Structures are given as C-alpha cells and as structure tokens.
Amino acid sequence: MGKIFVSYRRDDSRALAVAGLVAQLRGHLGEDRVFIDNDLPPGERYPDELRAELDASDVVVAVIHHRWATDFAADRPTDWVRYELSTALRQGKAVFPVLLQGAPQPRRGDVPADVAEVTSLQSTPLRSASYEEDIATLAAAIDIASAPPDLALTVADRTADQPRLPWRTTALRATCWGVLFAVLALRLATAPGRPTWQALMTAAYITLLPMIAITAYTFVLLLAGQRLDAATRRYQERSLKTSARYGWPLYALYGLLLIVIWTALPSPELPWASTPIKVLLTGLVVIGFGYLVQHQVRQVSKLDNDWPPPVTPDTLTFRRAASRLHAKLTANPRTRIDAGLRRQAESVYLALAEVRAELGERARRSRRGWFAAADHENFLPFTVVGLLGEIVLLTVAGLVIRLVSGPAALPAVLLGLAVIGGGVMLAALALMACFLSARRRGRRLVDELHEWDEVLRPLVFPGSQDQRTTAG
After folding, report:
1. Confidence class for position 12, pLDDT limits 50, 70, 90
2. Of 53, 258, 279, 326, which one is least surrounded by beta carbons within 10 A?
3. Is residue 96 classed as helix, strand or coil in its secondary structure?
4. Quick one: CA torsion of 238, 244, 245, 247, rounded to 10 degrees?
5. Whole-angstrom distance between the N-terminal and C-terminal Cα of the chain?
6. In Å, how far are 147, 190, 374, 382 from 389, measured between CA atoms?
7. pLDDT tens digits for 154-209?
8. Is residue 146 a contact partner of residue 58, using CB atoms and an 8 Å limit?
C-alpha cells in the first residue's frame, strides 16, 4: 500500500493538533505509512529527504489552518508547503485537504495559482464533537485512494472442476476401467483346453465379484460419508507443511498399501516377463506415483502461496481459500486492514458465496443431470459403468461364439442372462448409492460454507454484524 505525506506549516499553536492528527492516521493506516517531516533523523539533508518522501507517497494530506491562505504571501526563501502541494498536484497524486481547528474552506483567488486546485477539493473538517468519526472517514478515503489500481482480485470459477466434454470423459474413463478389469478377468478365466466362449463367459462371471465389492463399498461411503468428509476437511484446511507434519502416517500407509497390492497382483507367466522386465515395470510404477505426488504437492503449494487464492467448487481449493482468508484477517487483531487487503478479502468472500450457490444447485440435480455432468470427485461411477459394459460385452461375445459354433445349450443362455441381469442390478444399486452420496455431500458442503460465512462476514464487513444485531 502507498505512503501518506502530511503537508503542514510549523507553528507552536498548531503542533499539538497536527501531532494528534498524525497519531490518529497512523493508528488507522499503519505506523510506517504516514510521513511527517519531524520524522527525519538528525543530520539528514532536509530538502533531499523531503523530496524523496514526497515522490514516494501516493497521497498528500494538506493541513489547512485559519491563516493557511494568507501565509502563502509571507516572504520566505522556500515555501515548502507550496512546493509540496504544487508537486503533488502536478504529479497527479491524491490530495486530501483537512480543516484544522474550525478553519474555513479557502477560496481559489486567495492562494497561488499552482496550488489553487486544493481549494476545489472536498475537505474533511475535524470537529471536536465528532473527531473520531471524522478521522475514520478521512482514513477510509485515504486507504481507498492509496490502493493500487491493478490490485489482484479473486473471481470464482464455478466450472473449474467440470470436464469440457462430459460424455467423452465418462466414456473414456469407463472404457479404461472396463479394459483393465477385462484383462485381469480374462487372465484368470483362460485355461488350457477351455473353449473361447466359455472363457469369455467365465471372465464376465468373475467380473461380478469386483462389482459386488464396489457396490458394497459405495454403500459404506453412503453411510460413513459424513465422518470421512469431516476428516478430509481437517486436512484440506491445513497448509501443506502442517498437513504433512500430522498426516505422514496416513501417507505412509497409502504407500505401503500400494506396494502390497502391486506385489500381490498375479504376474503373467510369459517368456519375456523376466526379472529385468518386472524391475522396469516396478520402476515405471514408482515414477508414475512420484509424479502424481509431486503434482499434488505443487497444487497445494500454489494454494498456500498465491494471494488472493483461487476459489472453485473443488473442496481442496475453496477450503484452503476460506482458511487462508480467516488466517489473513485474524493474524494480528491490533493491525488495521488496509483498503487493498479489504478489497481482496471481499473478493474472496464473494467468490466463496458464488461457489456455495453453485454447490447448492448441484445438490439439487436429478440423477440424469448428475451423471451427465461427469464432475464426480471419485472414480466409482466410471468404474461401475466400465464393469457393466465389460460384463455385457464378454457375455454377449461368449454367447455369439457359442451360437456360431453350434446350438447353444439352454443353461448357458440362462447363465449369461443371469450374469447380465446381476451386473445391471449391481450397477443400478452402486450408481444410486453414488448419487445419494453426492447429493448428501453437496448439502454438507453448502452447510460448511454457511458456517464459514458466519465466521468470515464480521471480519470482512466489520459493521455488518452490529447492524444485524441492532436490526434484530
């Protein structure tokens, strides 16, 4: 924020009043932002330092006393008040006239032409009956005038977590999961001497097992979603450094779990799958996992360092934004928040309100609208669709091959229909559980942002709470 230069004429009768004005402005705007020439250290060259401080200031406060206009006619080697004001006007600085001790507004014709513009500016009278209010009004106006014009503000991005092509995204992710499980199922179903159609249908039957497990898991999430979301909130509201300090056991457990799963996967018994190849694949998996971790660290670091922070419907993003805004406004309760920070805080607050409205709309979406949006935070809906497609394709392919090779036995057809029916039923249950979880979670996030609103509003708009209490 810019500095404020106080321009005044030295006089013992006004020294106390000027000192009081400077002390009040420093209390409102900050000790280091308000300059007055008696701050110059002994031995400094007065003209050089005065010019440097004036050039470095964005705002000039012109202290006007009763004989302010007539004092310009006095014979003096250098009229520093005239120099300060004419320089400020010529350089386009903001000038705030202050009428001290009941001084009248000066007239344009009573002052030199190069400072006459000061008489046309709106003055702030400092009245004994409303001294504190007058100073607060003056400080607020100075704060706004000294804020940089290119101040960075936060604008909510309500669609940042949504894919640009939702249907293509759903199809691609579902296909990837379906192919992955199909390869594993065919690996287990293929055996020497077993017909192709039977291997395909067996693979479809095997795929029902992960479908059952995933369906059960979706209902677990439905029942335990509130507790899981509360635990996630505690970690996401913390900085990266704090989260790593308290959450490293959980991260170590995730890494150990990945190692166990990787080593437990069946390895294909092929001639080329030698030890060097397995070591290479393991190295690629480790590199890929390390890249994902690094990407996540960079993302959280950006959220911790950028100010003002971005705000999107993504939980990590808006939780870090709300937490950082609260920390910024409560870091030092005795320090006044300047206009620049206030404007940035307001922009973050309003962006959080927009995100709250967006999440409220999402929580009211229909099943079709929820699935079509493809903005699911977890992989379960895509996995379920991929598994269902795999079950149907493997079963149909097996029955077609059986019919081409000869008449299909009725038990094989019935079994195929039962497998497809079971897959459809499980997929419907899993998607229903995912939809209900998403809707309940959306409502919880809206309530969470309402809680943040109650905490942040009095900090961002200090007078709003008093007005609401008075109105009530």
Report:
1. low
2. 279
3. strand
4. 90
5. 37
6. 58, 20, 17, 11
7. 888 888 888 877 788 888 888 998 898 888 888 888 888 888 888 999 999 999 99
8. yes
Q: What is the pLDDT of residues 110-169, one digit of tens each?
A: 999 999 999 999 899 998 888 888 888 888 788 777 777 677 888 888 888 888 777 888
Q: What 8-state DSSP symbol labels residue 41?
A: P
Domains recognised in the chain with CATH numbers: 3-145 (3.40.50.10140), 166-471 (no CATH)
Tokens read off for 177: 């999961």
Reference 391, options 426, 360, 352, 355; nearest CA is 426
Round the average pLDDT of the chain to a whole number and report it: 84
Report percent pLDDT > 90 for the chain: 35
Q: Is residue 51's pLDDT more than 90?
A: no
Question: Where is 186: in which H helix or E strand?
Answer: helix 166-189
DSSP of 259-281:
HHHHHHSPPP--TT--HHHHHHH
Establish whether the linkage from the previous residue to 308 is cis, with ω within 30° of 0. yes
Question: What's the DSSP call for residue 158?
Answer: T
Q: Give CA separation, 129 vs 102, 104, 125, 133, 140, in Å.
A: 11, 17, 11, 9, 19
Q: Output the six-digit token pair for 411.
A: 């038990």
- List all residues 6 or more positions away from 367 whose beta carbon is below 8 Å from its beta carbon: 431, 432, 435
Q: Quick check: 7 and 81 in contact, CB under 8 A?
A: yes
Q: Which of 299, 297, 353 is nearest to 325 (CA)?
A: 353
Whether 376 shows a pLDDT value over 50: the answer reads: yes
Compute the residue count for the chain.
472
Res. 74: pLDDT tops 80: yes
- C-alpha span between 347 and 339 (Å, rounded): 12
Round to whole Å and give the CA distance between 7 and 97.
10
Q: Is 167 helix (H, G, I), strand (E, B) or coil?
A: helix
Is residue 338 helix, strand or coil?
Answer: coil
pTM of the model: 0.67
Which residue carries 């006619």 as its tokens? Answer: 73
pLDDT in the model for residue 78: 85
The whole-angstrom separation of Cα 174 and Cα 167 is 10
For residues 198 and 415, give the distance between their C-alpha atoms in angstroms, rounded to a whole number: 11
Q: Which residues of 218-237 are buried (b: 16+ CB within 10 A; e: fewer)?
A: bbebbeebeeebeeebeebb
Residue 266, both tokens: 């069946």
